Every structure is written in structure tokens, then in C-alpha cells.
Amino acid sequence: MEPLLFAMFFGATVFAAPVLAQTPEPAAEVQLGEITITGAFIRATMPRAPVGAAYVTMTNTGAQDDRLLSVTAPFGETVMLHDMVNHDGIIAMHPLPRGLPIPAGESVSLTPGGKHMMITGLTERLEKGQAVDLTLMFELAGEVTLRFDVLALNARRHPGVGNAGEN
Predict the structure, then answer these.
(1) Those residues with Cβ within 8 angstroms of residue 112's Cβ, 6 or more apart along the chain or in another chain
(2) pLDDT score at 2
(3) Closest Cα to residue 93, out of 120, 67, 70?
(4) How far is 20 from 72, CA to CA, in rounded Å?
(5) In the chain, N or C terminus with fewer CB closer than 10 Å?
(6) String of b and e for 14-25 (b: at least 16 CB within 10 Å)?
(7) Secondary structure of residue 77 in the 3-state scheme
(8) SS3 call for 49
């Protein structure tokens, strides 16, 4: 009887582990000075993809405007801040070379199809279920290294924020 119980336990553990590993925990909330950061995620990439995209929501609870100046990723050559802009029905990606303003008392969300962090020169494939670190540098709040959950290729938001069913 014991070998049968062991086999059942071992089998359940082996088959349940991949399912559990792919379900991210609720999005972490990080406080850096007057900036609250939530919902950090990055989309999984195809093999040998040269670029990736990361998303997050930043809320400035302070009385002064702040600015996300730069982002670095140890798994990519550069990280650029971009905005998607619609010009007469043509959507184009525009860099934000002076950073991304975070007005006092407001939230700024980086989302698929909108403002985002574009990671170029990827040195590794980003696979669903992983977590990776990016370092964000703010003008006033300073620097923070933040954990980003790697979600599905088509993820729209972190499942720990808003409508979890969309991931």
C-alpha cells in the first residue's frame, strides 16, 4: 500500500508543480518615496526575439511632479521608454528621451498598446512563469530594483491587478 501512496503523491506533485509555477502571485506593491508602483509584468518572448516589453502602474502620492528617467535590465542591452501615438489612423511608437512624467496626485500606467518599456538586445528568452528584475530611476524618488513577473505573450495586465481573467 505504501508504494501506491508514494506513487500517487509523487505523481500529483510532478503534475501540479507546472500549474502552480505558472500562476503569478498578486502583484507586488512597492513604495519608493512618494511613488507607489504596482502591477509590474513583462510579456513572454518567442525564442530568439530581439525585443521585449514591460508594463507597470506608477502613482505619485506626493505634492511634486516626478519623472521616470531611465530603466535598465540585466537581460537586455537597452531599455527605452516609448509611447504609442495615433496620427491620422496610423499608430507609431515614439521614444520618450526626457523620460516619463508622473504628475503629483496622479497615476501613470504603462500598458500594451500605450506607454511601455521596450527592452532591446535581449540576451535570453523570457518565459511565462519566470520573474526578472528591472531597475527604475526616478528624478526625485531615486532608484529601485523591481521584480517583474513574466506573463503570457498576449497578457494585458498583471492578474493581481484589476480583471485577473484577462491574462
Answers:
(1) 43, 53, 55, 155, 156
(2) 54
(3) 120
(4) 29
(5) N
(6) eeeeeeeeeebe
(7) coil
(8) coil
- pTM over 0.85, yes/no: no
Q: How far apart (Å, rounded) are the C-alpha atoms in residues 55 and 25? A: 16
Residue 25 DSSP one-character state: P
Residues 38 and 146 sit within 8 Å (Cβ to Cβ): no
Low-confidence ranges of the chain (pLDDT < 50): 1, 3-24, 163-167
Grid coordinates in use for 56?
A: 507597470
**Residue 1 pLDDT:** 47
Q: How far is CA 19 from each of CA 24, 38, 73, 118, rounded to the nearest angstrom? A: 10, 24, 27, 29
Instruction: Say what the pLDDT of residue 86 is.
Output: 87
* Cα–Cα distance, 94 to 97 (Å, whole number): 9
Q: What is the pLDDT of residue 42?
A: 96
Report the distance separating Cα 154 and Cα 156, nearest Å.
Answer: 6
Grid cell of 11 as nine digits: 505523481
